[in-house]
Design brief:
This protein is mainly α. The chain is 36% helix and 4% strand. The protein has three domains: 43 residues, no CATH class; 195 residues, Cytochrome Bc1 Complex, Chain D, domain 2; 143 residues, Orthogonal Bundle (Cytochrome Bc1 Complex, Chain D, domain 2). The longest helix is centred in the first third of the chain and has 25 residues. The chain starts with a helix and ends in a 5-residue tail after the last helix. It binds heme C (HEC) (2 copies). The site of one heme C (HEC) has 26 residues, from helix 11 and helix 13.
């Protein structure tokens, strides 16, 4: 900036001053200065933060630990169904601020795909609750996948991953999209070569992990660390659960009571505070028109009794992630909650004999009660700890966003 000003004042002096040659020489010097600074600035503008993400605190050198009000309560695993004061399962924490921050760049960087066209964030976009607003996600070369991209908020608490619950760690899961032909289409050797030949990434990995060549494990760890920092536990519901009676409006409170009731039974599977018990449940959602039946966990586990089963999804930030269910089967939250009122197994194809979960029955809720459930689901929105979306990336590529690919304005 400074040198640009100097260059401008140089130009204005040029017409006035006598010995033109000398002035021109000086001005050329100032013109050169900003160029060299830009290259240098580019490299140094990618410093990794030494501060833990919002909600986390540094407990010892280079270890961030989540700090939440739920730390005071016991985990649902040893306290039954779990009322509002139940604890959370353990989160994947303990990563350093630098590793988490490096993961943020990697998550948004299309350099991680075979043709540099798509990043994790292209399908898990912050603007869409870390989903993408589509019924079925779209991969490299616009390949349409079989299922919907789930939200990643609070994903660090999960040890049952994917719609069919077939993966148990974030590291294991991310190998899938990185190397699947229809997702990011990359190969481990190309990924590592691209990162190693990027001087900025080499610097950042050294800061995060210490000296040495970039390793694939480090890539997976950094992305996992970033994903685990996406915590959402400060919704209006949470303030209510921690004792602030006025945090929920009367209609949201009515909705919470319906949600928790033994009539609707929502809370039996969508157990607070995660709003998922992480189990596989068969609920018999109808597929979108023309789509084949998705056997879900039945196919991946090979256990016939799990046919049509899906892992109970969290409902945190659910208002942000339409359309709903494993392949965007329902457009709105109202349609989604109405499904539960349709009667046990009402949408199961005739030739399927599914073992529908015993909590799915015929609650016979009134229309107003369905509306109140939707009101309550909106009280689960909290994006207060939204990470900063990088404006520029070490690769020089544009950060991957769902909007650029969907041509959707909002959902
Ligand atoms: C082409 C779109 C696409 C890209 C790119 C993509 N994902 Fe996904 N992601 C999906 C879909 C679709 C699913 C659900 C797949 C299933 O369950 O069958 C998913 C599931 C997940 C899950 C499990 C969530 C849950 O609730 O269990 C995680 C975690 C995840 N992705 C992280 C990532 C990371 C990290 C990257 C980058 C390395 C990435 N994804 C790239 C579409 C994508
Ligand atoms: C037996 C366990 C169970 C019960 C009870 C239950 N759900 Fe679900 N819920 C699930 C499963 C499993 C899915 C995912 C199913 C799929 O994609 O096919 C789901 C999905 C959802 C979704 C969409 C999530 C997303 O990310 O797309 C919403 C919203 C939802 N449930 C709300 C409710 C409400 C409200 C109730 C009470 C009326 C309820 N659920 C009762 C198991 C349950």
């Amino acid at each position: 900036m400074m040198s640009v000003l100097m260059w401008r004042s140089c130009l204005s002096k040029l017409s006035l001053s006598g010995p033109r040659a000398r002035a021109l020489g000086l001005c050329t010097f100032f013109l050169w200065l900003p160029l060299s600074l830009t290259a240098d600035e580019h490299r140094h503008s990618f410093e990794l933060t030494t501060t833990c993400p919002a909600g986390f605190k540094l407990i010892e050198e280079r270890r961030c630990k989540l700090n939440s009000l739920y730390d005071n309560y016991r985990s649902p695993h040893d306290s039954g169904v779990g009322g509002p004061r139940a604890g959370l399962p353990k989160i994947r924490d303990g990563f350093s601020p630098q590793v988490i921050d490096l993961g943020r760049y990697l998550f948004f960087d299309p350099l991680l795909s075979a043709d540099n066209s798509i990043a994790c964030s292209s399908c898990h976009d912050p603007d869409y609750g870390f989903a993408d607003g589509l019924g079925r996600a779209r991969g490299i070369n616009n390949a349409v996948l079989d299922r919907s991209a789930p939200s990643l908020w609070n994903i660090g608490f999960f040890d049952t991953l994917l719609w069919d619950g077939s993966k148990s760690s974030l590291e294991e899961q991310l190998i899938g999209p990185l190397y699947a032909d229809n997702e990011m289409g990359n190969r481990p050797d190309q990924l590592i070569a691209d990162l190693r030949s990027n001087a900025i990434y080499q610097d950042l990995f050294t800061v995060a992990f210490g000296p040495g060549e970039i390793q694939l494990d480090q890539v997976y760890t950094a992305i996992t660390a970033f994903e685990s920092s996406l915590v959402s536990l400060n919704s209006r519901y949470d303030f209510y659960a921690h004792g602030l009676q006025t945090a929920l409006s009367p209609s949201e409170l009515e909705g919470l009571n319906v949600f928790r009731s033994f009539v609707s039974r929502c809370g039996e599977c969508h157990t607070p505070p995660l709003f998922s018990n992480q189990e596989i449940a068969i609920i018999g959602v109808p597929e979108p028109k023309g789509r084949p039946f998705d056997p879900g966990a039945g196919a991946s586990s090979g256990i016939p009794s799990q046919r049509g089963g899906f892992r109970v999804p969290s409902l945190r930030n659910i208002a942000k992630t339409a359309p709903y269910m494993h392949q965007g089967n329902f457009e709105s939250l109202r349609d989604t909650v109405a499904f539960y009122n349709g009667g046990r197994g009402h949408a199961v194809p005739e030739d399927e004999n599914l073992l529908i979960h015993w909590h799915i029955w015929d609650p016979d809720l009134r229309e107003e009660e369905l509306d109140r459930l939707v009101d309550f689901l909106h009280a689960l929105t909290d994006e207060g700890f939204m990470p900063e979306i990088p404006k520029r990336l070490p690769s020089g590529l544009t950060p991957g966003r769902a909007m650029n690919r969907n041509n959707l304005t909002s959902r």
